[in-house]
Amino acid sequence: MILEELWKLFPIFLTEHKDCWKKWFDEENERLESLLLQKEIVRISHIGSTAVDTIWAKPIIDILVEISRECNMEEIKEILTCNGYICMNQNQDRMSFNRGYTEKGFAEKVYHLYGDVEAGEPTAAKPGFTSSTESGKAQRRVRYCFMDAANLCEVIMGDNRTETLYDVQIRSSVRQTKQAPFAMANSTAPTLQMVELFYTKNGLPIDKDEEYGYSERYELINLPKNFDGNMYADRPNDQTIKLHLNREPRFYSWIGFANGNYEISRYNAVDLAFNKAYVPGGLKMVAGGAHGWKTGQTTHFSVTGYLNKKFTHPGLTTKLIQYPFPVFRLAELYLNYAEALIETGNPANYSIARNYIDKVRVRAGIPIIEESLEHATSDWKGKKDDQEVLRQIVRQERQIEFYLENQRFWDLRRWKKAEALNEHFKGWNIAGTSIIEFFKEPQNNPFLTNSFSREHYLMPVPLSEIERMPQLIQNPYYK
User: Fold this and answer.
1) 259-263, 274-278, 375-379: range with lowest mean pLDDT
2) Which residues contact 325 (CB under 8 A, 6 or more apart)?
3) Residue 64 needs a FRET pair 20 to 30 A away by CA distance; which of 152, 191, 207, 390 works?
């Protein structure tokens, strides 16, 4: 393009200083730190006129990233150019990148993973979860990443239909007895199999973490101080099982378990402080307990002994908080790309695949893959470039990250693993009136049934087509 054409597309104009410029820098800083997390960054600085709040400026954020001399600049260039940055010029000691420029002019604001900038501190609008611990901050990020209607930076496609009292938010909410509209709550029950899919705090499957104690996971234990990383009130006399300890932040943000916490702003007609917005005393899931099954009850109870917290806004009081249900979000785009790279079987693609998976993992508050594998059992330890290990990681990552987002069935089907749906759904003894009876042993659930037949992997060839062309061979398992 000639200069006149560039000036028309990207005009230079000055505006008064805007407070949002600092937020834009913070968002980009977080993004760069995520992208370059394995590299040696010395400092990231907001420079130029937008960094000075007393002068007018071009509304373009200038950022200086300083790296150590030992860094491989070509690797950094590859990472940035693969993530939407355009390399404008390069010499021995310096590279210059632009983002947000297109052939039609300045781009609209681009999507990025919801982070600490958006999640912020606990407030009345976004209560619950501390921002003073790393686990608490991660729990805020993953809980609000698609429910923060003012910051839908990650939701690429959402379902905007109005939610009713009979949809997922209320059915996942905790049972209350002194206020409407919670009579139909307490119904969404994760299975034990789903609960066990969540990673350990080291970012590993519970049976692949050499530090976790997999064989002792069903043993009773008194709740340790700050067991979920949220600095809530201690309950040292309450018990749970070891399975529920030393787990990743998504587990504590999305799963409610016996004597665990459940974030909500109003409980039994009492408003709760935004930094203490959780059910007082924890979830009482044993039979006859405040949130457990009661004799003769046929509806509105957890059939597995677990409650779902995902999709229920912690700011919920007596009125639903509306937000678009996530249909497609940026985290899925990253994991789709990573899975495709792994399935190429080309080892040159594995580091790029790890980088995209690590974006999702770091936002979720767990270590990057390479660091996690240092804590793995011998069959996984150090195997960051093993295709089968990476395949299992990205598949489990999808099942965790998109828990209850209508993804798992279709993923299992395309992976040809859907026979797993024929297993008995497991839970705990919801008729147990003590914590010992409740957690005595996992039980096959009598209420939940499912079935998948192998022929369902493919649709049948219509009989009319076979009659028209007898040479056609029917798909497997259809008679």
Assistant:
1) 274-278
2) 146, 158, 159, 161, 163, 168, 311
3) 152
